[in-house]
Structure formats: structure tokens, C-alpha cells
Amino acid sequence: MTTADDDFRPDGLAAAALDANFAELIRWYGSRPGGEIRAGDDVTCCSTGLAFRSVNCAVDIDLDPATADERIADVRDWFVARGVPWRWLAGPTSRPVDLGERLVRAGFELVSDGAGMALDLTGFEPEAPPAGVEIETVDDLAGLDDWERLQRRALALDDIRTRAWRDAHDRALSGDLPMRVWVARLDGVPVAASGLFVAAGVAGIYNVATVPEARGRGIGRAVTIAALAEGVARGHRTAVLGASEMGYPVYRRLGFREVSRLRSYALT
Q: Dihedral (C-alpha) 267, 103, 93, 59: value to the nearest 10 degrees?
């Protein structure tokens, strides 16, 4: 396992570190009260008990091709028995190489296909946010309320998913945990957010979101920089993230480069 003291990883190692960081994040979600984790040598199943697909996942996928179809069915049955929406999270370290084709044959569909990206943090220097923007770490329930409201609008979530998304992050208010979240305020109004999850020797950037009317003004960039600065303060030299189509050009301008593809599959 690489550590924070290593030089910036080449693409292959950065992609593996991103996979490992994402898997640790999912396990952290699953470790909440009411959650459940089934860890195996070939796949780990994490259920939060919450009604939001993003936080219920099968990760660390290394299936034997000879028995992969049976294991796919077993994992499906495990999640279905728990009654939560869920997904397979497949990255460059997932096996077998035809995993996606097998999942589609088993009744799953590809629901997302985004870029896995990495950034060398050596020499990183924070930037001042745009005029009128203040960025705060969320460390109390009032801040979490603001985070919840802007995530709802930015991600167009319904009531059930909004509550589940909040509950998945209600432990992120303590500075000694691997997950921290930030809110950016424009003239006092919460308009953007970001998150940092530290694991596998890298700083993982997650949950960057901006409400529609505040997009294109550099606020998403600014709140991402706040999370990156915390990663540097914790001694990390590499940042990783999974980019949406909307976020990709923002991260490219920050210096991130694409190192992998991250794909999610869910039951149709």
C-alpha cells in the first residue's frame, strides 16, 4: 500500500489509490449506526440502511471468472434482502475484466461512467475565493442544515434522498474523522459544497456541488480548493476524485489529470 510520503503516483498507482479511497469511503458510510458491511476476499458489500443508491455499494470487486456469475447473483440477493437502492462501483482494479458485460447480462445497467482523476499536490498554493464568497467547515448542525439544503437544490434530490444524504454525513462534524465537508456562502447565502475523505494515502475529493444560479462563477473551484488545502495540511501529496461531466473542466483547470474510468451499475 502506498502512503502519503510517496512521490506523486504514476497513472496506474493513482488509479488504484482512487479505487482504494473510494472503497474506504463506502465502508465508512456503511459503518454508521444501522449500517452493515459484509467483507469478503472477492467483494465487499456495504449497506447504510438509507434510501440512497450512492451510499449502498459493492466495492473491492475481484471475482473469480469461473464463479463470477454466481457471486453477482449472491451480492444482488444480499442487497435486495436489505431493501435499499444500491450499485456496483467498478474501477480499474475491479475484476474480472468483463465485469461490466456480466453485470448487464445479469440485469444491471450502466448508470454512470465518469473520469477518475488525480492531482499532484506538491507545491500546492491555495487561492483567495471570489469576491463575496466565504468558505466554512461544517462543524455543527446549523451548518449541516445549510449543507443539506444546497445539496438538495444542486443535485435535484427529492425528500427521501435528501434526508438519506444528510444522515449519511451527520458524523462528518468532528475534525478527527476522515470525512470533512465545506460550505461556500455567496453574500451569506449557502451556494456550494465540497467534501474530503482521507484514506489509502491520498486525499479524496467528493460531493462537490453548486446550486444552479451560482454556477460558472468560480465558487465550485474555490470550495474544492478548500478541501485540497486541508488534504495538504494533513500531509498528503496526491488528491483523487471522480468527476462528473459538469465538474470535469473545473478539475482540469485545477491541474487534475484523468487516470481511470469509474463506472456504476444498478438493477434496471
A: 30
